[in-house]
Write a structure and sequence with these properties.
Oligomer: single chain
Helix content: 40-55%
Distance between the termini: 43 Å
Largest sheet: 4 strands, antiparallel
Order of helices and strands: HEHHEEEEEEEH
Number of strands: 8
Shape: elongated
Structural class: alpha+beta
Amino acid sequence: MRGRSFVTLPSLVVRHELRLLAGLWLWAARRTDGAAAGGAVFGYARGQGAMMAGLGFVCVVETVMLSLLLRDWPTVHLVVLVLDVYTIVFVAGLHAASVVRPHVLDPDAGTLRVRQAVHVDVRIPLERIASVRRELRTTHERADGELDLVVGAQTSVTVELAEPVAYATFLGRRREVRVVRFHADDAGGLVRAVERARDGYAVP
């Protein structure tokens, strides 16, 4: 079991990094991942834009300063420069992944797809939604059966389920949840759209 985990974890990390790079390409090409014909997409990256821009700026300043400080040590300078550039790309990739992987409501498929960058992707059948509401929360305590996808220290939509749904964590573990909280830039619009779509998938 330990050997299997040792082999699996690096592959998960590599896959994660490749998906971040793919997000950068999609962002540059102004394309969206997972959008369905006839469906609706709801972004959530606006709430973290300022924070990510600030973090990226700090990383750039750090890269310049360390380059000046380490210019007399070429080998160390090169290693640190590579790490710093990678950090900048990583930060940009995280934000890009959030932009190009929005929440997707697909009435034809009967699903609400709730995502957070490349880390979480939960497909919720509309028939399992007991209630959906706009609810601003800035504090979240971990609890069994609940999933909080926080953006900018907040969630703005709460979905309660009549039956649990399962999703895979970053490490591949299967987890079931009955309450999903997440953020959407247009929380009210998302809630109204889900309520309209649920008409044909009403919970008995």
